[in-house]
């Protein structure tokens, strides 16, 4: 099956075989977007060949004489095999199983290139810089072994000064990533205990048959904890087992003379917002490998408007620092609080005579960031970020790698995903600890678009043998590199030690005492590295974590951040609340969010299918149907039917694939809306919500709100509206009354003229009032209420709030589950303007009440600024569509609403398809003449 060639996908059209070229040097230990001195050059190698061969030396390789194919660089082995037609696309159908052999083979890369001899007399050296060795590699240049590397999380840097010839042959051998490792006994014991605990909690939900293995660390070889490679490589509950291998980033031969800049750190240590001043600390590091005189650094800081601050820093022992006072400082803010001005930094390394021997350029934002953990007046402690002295309610999501094969993810794909997050009103993205430190394009985009980054170190869901000397040394090198690489980023808000390691160790062993399970990493090595290299950025031992929550442990509600998985999994993980439920549907229902009083919710989410178009693009024709093997293959959670419990309670069970997409999307969207609104009403006691998860590493069913083809789900657009800086939301009180709350997460008071309605789906208004309020900055409060006997809640009506000038989005509340709503059938009309440069304005007009009214995505890369709307009879929604191909007629875009194509309100008790009863009445709630939906009792 041939693969597509759109950005971000594997494809035959994108194979890189362009030879080598001279490029400006980029430093390994300086931030992205740096520019080197032209006197230092780099020969970029991107013409490689690839062969599978068990040989362990170049001589044995030559004797074996394997077959070579062109290699995609940047890329990986899987991509190269797809290009050569040797394997099918590993995401298509069930090809991942047919590609399993790739991880067990040894792979050789070969490149030939010419170069001038190294000029030792001038103090020149040559280094081979491999930014993306993935993962266990040995390198030879001209038959001489120049080094080895065993980490996906830092570059391989090799001095090859004495090995460069006029004609050169570079060989790189990649061993299977876990070959030769023995699982640590302590980790093996923890995994075994976790499997038993998992089985005890859900004895009917674990199986070892193909396709139903428990996800993640429960089925992985525990030896992975000794290898610094992305944990999700071995499979997760949202991803297949598909460990990448190969050259994920460019390979360069760098030629340097005398001395180089080895690193710089430019950051605001204090700011005065009112006076528009900032104190800026500057540190510079240099490496003088063939220079004996004194060196100095000349640093200039240029404001967006052109004003220049400069300082000369003598370097003693290769290091020096200075402190600048910046007047008329342009401060960096998240996009909801202000602008994102970036200063240009130029650092020149000079001899006493003034000769510049190296130069780098960078862009930084002036801001301060802090983590406020002061006592909360409702008890416990706050957990909130403070930007430039202003408290922030972080609104965002968890970022996972956009592909299992990271070498194929282009900077354009990363940029597009961050832009979509910005469109979704997100102000923070958490780079999850089971994946990868992201490429430079991600952090650059977050800097430019005003999105904070919560950065995990790459440890997840398992014990790590932190007393192993080799592993500890590798982790130390990784931490040094990544902290130095990212420390100048304005977006960087937090370093967190791990994902769920504390929580799982505590669950399994009953304590968190220091020991050989990662404790020394998270409480010693990593915080010490951050304190030394980036002291202005807070460090947090893990996620979730709490220093002093006596009742909830590391995942409680009185302190720290928490992962709210009561919803979806149906068990209490620290929130408290009810323990008895009338059925499984209620146990997993999003109504449970109302009991969560956590301080910062760093994970919570609900599973949903992507659009049908995404599933069909990756599935063989005729294979895709509800509960077909091809459908279940797209779902890596176990059991495959877990989502049925929630759908049974909220929408009823789907009868076909189209309904499954609608129903699961509705559950996710309504659940995220409910949760976000609850947590935001608790501001300032709760100070952040990060959805699990933002994106997908392959085209499957998961918790993502943007699928692998970069098509937003209904949940994205519901969250987009709930994440607006000013939110109006309804909540029902314990006595049945109805309240309207106004939440303002901004820095300025906002006057609102609200219209509050309770109306039936047929158009009769029960309540219609005007409410004028001032939404105070960083405040949340109830501004209106009505007793239940006035608005008489029922399945035939809804509450609606709107604001005349669009300061807030319209919002609504239903008074019954989706399956019980008496919605008369609506139709959606589309009126389209012309396609002008790939952009068009379209209008949706509703005739009747339309739920989940949306424009379908005809192809990846086409985006809508809003979608999946509630539209009342006569409502018009203006939507801007971008990314249209030349010649595409916007009038041909398709529209749909909930349950389109068949009755959208089917519900049958799980396991008892014969047990159903119809709602009495002359007409089905779906509005279709002659239809009578099955409604569960």
Automatic annotation (TrEMBL):
<dbReference type="InterPro" id="IPR006102">
    <property type="entry name" value="Ig-like_GH2"/>
</dbReference>
<dbReference type="InterPro" id="IPR050887">
    <property type="entry name" value="Beta-mannosidase_GH2"/>
</dbReference>
<keyword id="KW-0326">Glycosidase</keyword>
<dbReference type="Pfam" id="PF00703">
    <property type="entry name" value="Glyco_hydro_2"/>
</dbReference>
<dbReference type="Pfam" id="PF17786">
    <property type="entry name" value="Mannosidase_ig"/>
</dbReference>
<dbReference type="InterPro" id="IPR041447">
    <property type="entry name" value="Mannosidase_ig"/>
</dbReference>
<dbReference type="GO" id="GO:0005975">
    <property type="term" value="P:carbohydrate metabolic process"/>
</dbReference>
<dbReference type="GO" id="GO:0004567">
    <property type="term" value="F:beta-mannosidase activity"/>
</dbReference>
<dbReference type="InterPro" id="IPR036156">
    <property type="entry name" value="Beta-gal/glucu_dom_sf"/>
</dbReference>
<feature type="domain" description="Glycoside hydrolase family 2 immunoglobulin-like beta-sandwich">
    <location>
        <begin position="276"/>
        <end position="367"/>
    </location>
</feature>
<dbReference type="GO" id="GO:0006516">
    <property type="term" value="P:glycoprotein catabolic process"/>
</dbReference>
<keyword id="KW-0378">Hydrolase</keyword>
<dbReference type="InterPro" id="IPR008979">
    <property type="entry name" value="Galactose-bd-like_sf"/>
</dbReference>
<protein>
    <recommendedName>
        <fullName>Beta-mannosidase B</fullName>
        <ecNumber>3.2.1.25</ecNumber>
    </recommendedName>
</protein>
<dbReference type="InterPro" id="IPR017853">
    <property type="entry name" value="GH"/>
</dbReference>
<comment type="similarity">
    <text>Belongs to the glycosyl hydrolase 2 family. Beta-mannosidase B subfamily.</text>
</comment>
<dbReference type="InterPro" id="IPR013783">
    <property type="entry name" value="Ig-like_fold"/>
</dbReference>
<dbReference type="Pfam" id="PF22666">
    <property type="entry name" value="Glyco_hydro_2_N2"/>
</dbReference>
<feature type="domain" description="Beta-mannosidase-like galactose-binding">
    <location>
        <begin position="65"/>
        <end position="249"/>
    </location>
</feature>
<dbReference type="InterPro" id="IPR054593">
    <property type="entry name" value="Beta-mannosidase-like_N2"/>
</dbReference>
<feature type="domain" description="Mannosidase Ig/CBM-like">
    <location>
        <begin position="738"/>
        <end position="797"/>
    </location>
</feature>
<comment type="pathway">
    <text>Glycan metabolism; N-glycan degradation.</text>
</comment>
């Amino acid at each position: 099956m041939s693969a597509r060639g759109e950005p971000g996908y594997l494809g035959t059209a994108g194979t890189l075989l362009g030879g080598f070229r001279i490029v400006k040097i980029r430093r390994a230990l300086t931030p992205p977007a740096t520019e080197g001195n032209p006197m230092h050059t780099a020969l970029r190698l991107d013409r490689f060949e690839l062969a599978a061969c068990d040989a362990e030396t170049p001589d044995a390789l030559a004797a074996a004489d394997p077959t070579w194919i062109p290699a995609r660089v940047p890329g990986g082995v899987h991509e190269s095999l797809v290009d050569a037609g040797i394997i099918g696309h590993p995401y298509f159908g069930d090809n991942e199983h047919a590609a399993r052999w790739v991880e067990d083979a040894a792979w050789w890369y070969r490149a030939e290139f010419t170069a001038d001899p190294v000029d030792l007399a001038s103090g020149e050296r040559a280094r081979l810089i491999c930014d993306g060795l993935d993962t266990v590699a040995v390198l030879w240049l001209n038959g001489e072994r120049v080094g080895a590397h065993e980490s996906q999380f830092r570059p391989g840097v090799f001095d090859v000064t004495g090995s460069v010839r006029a004609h050169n042959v570079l060989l790189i051998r990649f061993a299977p990533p876990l070959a030769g490792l023995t699982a640590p006994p302590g980790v093996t014991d923890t995994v075994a205990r976790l499997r038993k605990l998992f089985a005890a909690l859900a004895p009917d939900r674990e199986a070892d048959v193909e396709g139903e293995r428990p996800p993640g660390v429960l089925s992985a070889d525990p030896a992975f904890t000794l290898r610094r490679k992305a944990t999700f490589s071995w499979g997760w509950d949202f991803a297949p087992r598909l460990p990448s291998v190969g050259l994920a980033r460019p390979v360069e031969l760098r030629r340097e003379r005398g001395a180089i800049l080895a690193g710089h750190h430019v950051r605001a240590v204090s700011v005065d917002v009112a006076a528009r001043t900032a104190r800026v600390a500057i540190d510079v590091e240099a490496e003088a490998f063939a220079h004996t005189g004194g060196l100095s650094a000349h640093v200039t800081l240029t404001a967006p408007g052109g004003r220049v601050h400069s300082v000369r820093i003598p370097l003693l022992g290769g290091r020096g620092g200075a402190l600048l006072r910046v007047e008329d400082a342009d401060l960096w803010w998240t996009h909801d609080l202000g602008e994102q001005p970036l200063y240009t930094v130029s650092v020149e390394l000079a001899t006493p005579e003034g000769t510049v021997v190296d130069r780098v350029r960078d862009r930084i934002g002036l801001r301060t960031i802090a983590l406020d953990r002061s006592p909360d007046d409702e008890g416990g402690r706050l957990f909130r970020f403070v930007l430039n002295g202003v408290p922030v309610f972080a609104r965002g999501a968890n970022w996972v790698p956009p592909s299992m094969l990271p070498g194929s993810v282009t900077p354009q794909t990363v940029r597009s995903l961050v832009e979509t997050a910005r469109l979704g009103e997100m102000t923070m993205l958490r780079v999850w600890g089971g994946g990868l430190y992201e490429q430079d394009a991600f952090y650059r985009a977050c800097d430019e678009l005003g999105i904070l980054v919560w950065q995990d170190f790459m440890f997840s869901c398992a014990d790590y043998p932190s007393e192993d000397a080799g592993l500890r040394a590798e982790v130390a090198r990784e931490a040094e590199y990544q902290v130095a690489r990212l420390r100048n980023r304005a977006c960087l808000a937090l370093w967190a030690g791990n994902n769920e390691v504390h929580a799982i160790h505590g669950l399994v062993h009953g304590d968190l005492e220091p020991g050989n399970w990662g404790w020394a990493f998270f409480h010693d090595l990593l915080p010490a590295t951050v304190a030394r290299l980036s002291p202005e950025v807070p460090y947090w031992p893990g996620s979730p974590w709490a220093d002093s929550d006596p009742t909830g442990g590391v995942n409680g509600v009185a302190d720290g951040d928490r992962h709210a998985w009561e919803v979806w999994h149906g068990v209490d993980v620290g929130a408290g609340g009810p323990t008895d439920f009338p059925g499984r549907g209620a146990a997993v229902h999003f109504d449970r969010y109302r009991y969560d009083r956590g301080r910062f919710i760093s994970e919570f989410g609900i599973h949903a299918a992507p659009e049908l178009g995404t599933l069909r693009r990756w599935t063989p024709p005729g294979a895709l149907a509800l509960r077909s093997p091809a459908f279940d293959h797209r779902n890596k959670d176990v059991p495959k039917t877990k989502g049925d419990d929630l759908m049974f309670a909220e929408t009823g069970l789907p009868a076909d694939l189209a309904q499954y997409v609608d129903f699961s999307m509705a559950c996710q969207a309504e659940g995220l809306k409910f949760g976000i609104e609850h947590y935001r009403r608790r501001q300032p006691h709760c100070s952040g919500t990060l959805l699990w998860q933002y994106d997908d590493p392959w085209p499957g069913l998961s918790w993502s709100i943007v699928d692998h083809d970069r098509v937003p789900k209904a949940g994205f657009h519901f969250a987009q509206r709930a994440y607006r800086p000013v939110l109006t939301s309804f909540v029902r009180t314990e006595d049945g009354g109805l309240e309207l709350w106004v939440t303002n997460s901004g820095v300025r008071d906002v006057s609102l003229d609200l219209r509050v309605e309770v109306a039936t789906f047929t158009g009769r208004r029960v309540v219609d009032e005007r409410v004028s309020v001032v939404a105070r900055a960083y405040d949340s409060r109830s501004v209106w209420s009505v007793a239940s006997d006035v608005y008489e809640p029922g399945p035939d009506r809804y509450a609606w709030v709107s604001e005349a000038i669009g300061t807030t989005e319209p919002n609504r509340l239903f008074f019954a589950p989706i399956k019980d709503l008496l919605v008369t059938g609506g139709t959606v009309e589309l009126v389209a303007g012309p396609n002008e440069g790939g952009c068009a304005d379209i209008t949706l007009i509703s005739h009747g009440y339309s739920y989940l009214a949306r424009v379908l995505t005809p192809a990846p890369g086409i985006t809508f600024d809003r979608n999946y709307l509630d539209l009342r009879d006569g409502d018009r929604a203006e939507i801007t569509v971008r990314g249209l191909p030349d010649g595409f007629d916007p009038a041909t875009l398709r529209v749909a609403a909930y349950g389109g194509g068949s009755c959208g309100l089917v519900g049958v008790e799980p396991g008892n398809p014969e047990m159903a009863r119809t709602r009495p009445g002359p007409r089905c709630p779906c509005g279709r003449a002659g239809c009578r939906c099955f409604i569960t009792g």
